[in-house]
Amino acid sequence: xxxxxxxxxxxxxxxxxxxxxxxxxxxxxxxxxxxxxxxxxxxxxxxxxxxxxxxxxxxxxxxxxxxxxxxxxxxxxxxxxxxxxxxxxxxxxx
Length: 94
Known about the structure:
single chain, mainly beta, globular
């Protein structure tokens, strides 16, 4: 499936970036092919990956050896909603 991440990076890359996904439970690391663009101060990364529902990943974006962005990715098949992550609980806000 094709996915798009939109984020604000530590700095804006000028060359190719490396997208690494590390599955939190097994610590399995995969490098994923991607394309990206910058618009209105946001970095948009487009990539193909088959995620498994309820898995968590650490996402790392690098330009050569410099880290552009690092964060968490939570996989769910639920509709987007506001949530707060606290002690592995997700609280829904109406």
